[in-house]
Amino acid sequence: MSESEKWAERVKEFRESGKSQRVWSAEQGIKRSTLRYWLERTEELSEGTEIRFAELVRGGGDGDHVDDRAL
Fold this sequence. Notes:
The chain is an all-alpha fold and 71 residues long.
């Protein structure tokens, strides 16, 4: 089970508990900020709005690497 899958289960448990973030986090021994992060993260994953980054390669097509710092 991946980290995301584990947290998806914990988020589900939190939501079903009906407890506040503060109370539930304290009972679970985790930081409330960690719970908030995973609440947002699991929502992004379920909605397909996860932010992803892609590497862009600039150049003239000759295979030489262009150092962006020199531009």
